[in-house]
Design goal:
By secondary structure, the protein is an alpha/beta fold. Helices cover 49% and strands 14% of the residues. Helix 1 crosses helix 9, helix 2 crosses helix 3 and helix 6 crosses helix 7. The protein is globular and about 50 Å long.
């Protein structure tokens, strides 16, 4: 089974993708995780990606496709988070999967209001030591800007700053909303209300997957 998780930044599609991975025992792929790992290790790819993300731009289609195809070429089933982001990526992805004698089964689009997306992202703070994530609106640390566990001062990622968040929201509207329509026209798109609690959202997703498996 091949599942795609789409949604604007901050909609929780990565969280839901990981829950699908755990519940159905299929690999989870995130281009964001791949990029962050390379950034952390200061690889050539990481330096390129860091520069692009800090400018609030998206990594180019060819580079993303190359990374994704290398990851999925030997997988029969997987859930992928935040890809494809453009019609070009969607078409190349479909061709690649079909050439492997597989097919894309389900596409989820997670819906969250723009106001909540901005709060989720600009309010996000991360502990540089343990990696614990907080939010100054929804999940504050006990002491302002200080990690509860190790006393480290929390940091805000460059791509969580308001100017970049707004730019990425607009990028999504321009590039990825047409992808949602592309999959809607193929009758494999399921829209999910991402404003609910995490496990309520997952229950909605699980119902769709379980119904699909039964068919």
């Amino acid at each position: 089974m091949i599942i795609v998780m789409l949604g604007n930044i901050g909609t929780g599609k990565g969280t839901q993708g990981k829950l699908i991975m755990k519940n159905y025992n299929i690999p989870y792929i995130s281009t964001g995780d791949i990029f962050r790992e390379n950034i952390k290790n200061n690889t050539e790819l990481g330096l390129k990606v860091k520069s692009i993300l800090n400018d609030g731009k998206l990594v180019n289609d060819e580079l993303v496709n190359q990374i994704v195809f290398d990851k999925i070429k030997n997988l029969d089933s997987f859930v992928i988070d935040g890809y494809p982001r453009t019609i070009y990526q969607a078409e190349k992805f479909e061709n690649f999967v079909n050439n492997l004698n597989r097919k894309l089964d389900i596409v989820f689009s997670i819906i969250v209001s723009e106001e909540n997306i901005i709060k989720r992202l600009t309010g996000r703070r991360i502990c540089p030591e343990c990696g614990k994530i907080y939010n100054i609106y929804f999940d504050k640390p006990e002491k302002d800007e200080i990690c509860n566990f190790d006393g480290e001062k929390l940091i805000q990622r460059e791509d969580d700053k308001i100017e970049i968040v707004k730019k990425r929201i607009e990028e999504f509207k321009e590039n990825t909303e047409p992808v949602i329509e592309y999959y809607r026209n193929k009758n494999i798109l399921y829209e999910i209300d991402g404003e609910k609690e995490i496990f309520e959202v997952f229950n909605d997703i699980k119902r769709v997957i379980d119904d699909y498996i039964k068919k």
